[in-house]
């Protein structure tokens, strides 16, 4: 859905923005519960509470099938009726609506609006457990499991895993992890209280909380995590083999023999960056995304220049790629024109000026950004990696004495705004940039700002149709990549920013970029030279065809298409004389073997015979549809040909159709039907030569009809005859029956 700005919240914040027109249909008779904040945008306390509400919505985004968070601005005149109907007279007011609430319900008022996000999260669990009659269908059971239930669990369930969270009775960790996993299949989560002595002693549990996995074969295994906390449990359980987000997404295998992507699956290390992904991003951004703009001008041109500049300054590419990027930057800076045609830019990308050892990959080859299906990940993944790399490189660069902390971020913002083809994504990024990007005042902050925005996007897109089920969107870096980056305090997850800075610097270090799956530089240069050579040949051939045009058209001359030598034919009589002369020519000249003649050539004609087109004029780019049967029927005699040419030349200001001349042959009974000029160039296509006598006899029968028409007529006559014969036999038998009966 489009981004809707309303008061203190927008849909980017994972908060459902309600308005009076649709509030009843959303809150009442809903299969999930609702927690709604009624606020006034001018209220100071509401403004201070808004960040807490946003953080809570972001934290429980995976709980949405069971409960949704919403907000309505009562300061908006359009919403005052609804706020009055729900008896709200102070702000902010939180109201809870159970699942399947009846129409007219006022909701349950929550008094505490000064709590933190963790306390509100625990309050939501208490509210969900308060359901007595209508339990939300998507909400899993939150009560503790007993030893008796555990023994029979897999008899009635098809899950692959049962995660057991052993905890104190006052702990919310088990229930929070249960809600975090409610959208995932093949796994169930239940809490086990410390007072369940049988299970505790059976597994030898000594630490609370702790998580154990129970398997269908009856075995148990402790889940190994860096910290015994909710966020670590949630991530580790989601990463178990076979566990993936439920819904309509098909389950896919990453094995090469079952992979459904266009190419064979490439094994990769999740802890490393691959140059193949980065170069593929350059190819796609410059040749595909920028290539959709035929003309680049104004702010778009400035954004392109800034993008190329930061690439030249900070991209740690291979020498051949960097040489081409520098040539592209020089070319853009040398142009004073207010606009650039992409065709000219493409020539620089193709290295048509033939700069030594300069080339850009001409295809994508995803490695760490490959998806389980072709439409997953790919280019967006590589673009994030590219700009993360550029911000880290800029932060560690020593080339600029007074570096601009916003240089890379502004280049990214400009590129996404003007060239990123996902317009909704561009709008979201623009909104994030407008909120906080101006506060970045140092290079380390630019690195951390982009990292934090990336996590916001990941959180927003978690569970969206664009999410790859094999690569779920999680807060990055995950605990298995950087366990020291995560921590929890009083049930709330927080990042250790000093460790995040160290991790990003090491992860995007040029020394750690792997060259695996890259095409060799020499192969890249060789293929580029071959493409340029082929393109030059095509350009030379096209130029030669264009050069013939004026000679063939000027003065109404008769041009020889075979060699481009003009023949005399300025008047109508000259054209007629030539037609008669060509029709009466006798066989002569150099004879060649006919074994290797082309399919459309007459083997009895000399190979150096030159078909001519009389009074040709290059036609506009259009297609003519010609019925060859009727065409031959009208023009099978030389007299008709000359009359046709005479009528054509009288229409000097109109387009002139092609002429057909009788060609020299041994018996004089062949004609060559030459088609109209093709759309490009002055080439022609010769049809197969057809015996004139057969065509004449056939045309006498067809009377202007095609062979298909005649075939259909014969078929209809045959079917009609069979029908009449059947009717005759039927009536004859009916007439005989009364006579037989009378005789009996």
Automatic annotation (TrEMBL):
Enzyme class at the top of the EC tree: oxidoreductase
Catalytic activity: 2 R'C(R)SH + O2 = R'C(R)S-S(R)CR' + H2O2
Assigned EC number: 1.8.3.2
Cofactor: FAD
Subcellular location: Secreted
Bias type Basic and acidic residues, positions: 536-551
Residues covered by the ERV/ALR sulfhydryl oxidase domain: 372-476
Thioredoxin domain residues: 1-129
InterPro entries noted in UniProt: ERV/ALR_sulphydryl_oxid_sf (IPR036774), ERV/ALR_sulphydryl_oxidase (IPR017905), QSOX_FAD-bd_dom (IPR040986), QSOX_FAD-bd_sf (IPR042568), QSOX_Trx1 (IPR041269), Sulfhydryl_oxidase (IPR039798), Thioredoxin-like_sf (IPR036249), Thioredoxin_CS (IPR017937)
Biased composition (Acidic residues): 567-581
Pfam family, one: QSOX_Trx1
Gene3D superfamilies in UniProt: ERV/ALR sulfhydryl oxidase domain (1.20.120.310), Glutaredoxin (3.40.30.10), QSOX sulfhydryl oxidase domain (1.20.120.1960)
Keyword Transmembrane helix: yes
SUPFAM superfamilies in alphabetical order: FAD-dependent thiol oxidase, Thioredoxin-like
PROSITE patterns linked: ERV_ALR, THIOREDOXIN_1, THIOREDOXIN_2
Transmembrane segments annotated in the record for this chain: 708-731
Region entry Disordered, spans: 536-593
Record keywords, A-Z: Disulfide bond, FAD, Flavoprotein, Glycoprotein, Membrane, Oxidoreductase, Secreted, Signal, Transmembrane, Transmembrane helix
Similarity comment: family membership: Belongs to the quiescin-sulfhydryl oxidase (QSOX) family.
Role noted for this protein: Catalyzes the oxidation of sulfhydryl groups in peptide and protein thiols to disulfides with the reduction of oxygen to hydrogen peroxide. Plays a role in disulfide bond formation in a variety of extracellular proteins. In fibroblasts, required for normal incorporation of laminin into the extracellular matrix, and thereby for normal cell-cell adhesion and cell migration.
Protein name: Sulfhydryl oxidase
Gene name of the encoded protein: Qsox1_1
